[in-house]
Amino acid sequence: MQLDLSSVLLQWAVGGLLGLWITGRHRLVxxxxxxxxxxxxxxxxxxAIWAGTAEGDTGVGATVRDVGASVMVVCVAAALVVSxxxxxxxxxxxxxxDLLAPVAGFVALLGVAEVLGGPYALTVARLVVGAVFLxxxxxxxxxxxxxxxxxxxxxxxxxxxxxxxxCSWPIEVALLLVPVGMISVLNGSxxxxxxxxxxxxxxxxxxxxxxxxxxxxxxxxxPYYSAVMAATGLLYLAILTAFGTDVLAxxxxxx
Length: 255
What we know:
The chain has helices spanning 5-24, 31-55, 60-85, 95-116, 120-149, 156-177, 182-186, 197-219, 226-254. With 255 residues, it is an all-alpha fold. The chain has one domain. The chain is flat. The model has no long low-confidence stretch (mean pLDDT 93).
């Protein structure tokens, strides 16, 4: 399984848009939150298309990736336009409309798996779970900031993202350990080029991520508003360690 910019951006965008649907279906968060996430992850998806085109990849996998990513961008744009037009209506945007983009994105990841190589089923599983893992941790951080805009918002949507991200963590780590995986880096079968330091860094990142998610969830049990900001700060760190968990592992296994 190789590592390239297009796959990382696409993973991140797909997971982030899935998280938007998870939160948006409750109709609790202000319409501006949807505008923010659709804009951010829509731009990432465009970046993934550009990066994939620049690589000059050919074949069925590249076609599925590029078409799926393009459909995802169209779906994001459509949802953004509808949400702007209907911003004053109580119903605003149908939640199902936000689900179309990540569905198209997951199809695109099937093509990415073919482009990156490796055992196909394992590569698909790593890409899909990695998308959920990276995207939801990022969404949780962004939603934590949204409480500054909407301070009366209940904490349930933020708790939900943290719980789902935490549930994806053991699957993410297990898939990265499956041979040929990070066990080979940790036992020295695959040389990381730094005497095992990068393997240890991955292990620390993985463990730190779940700890940060757990502490953030615990912080939200406190009644004070500052607890939300504390959880958001912890989620900032969790994004860094989540990237260390997923992207660093892919880089090491691709070397």
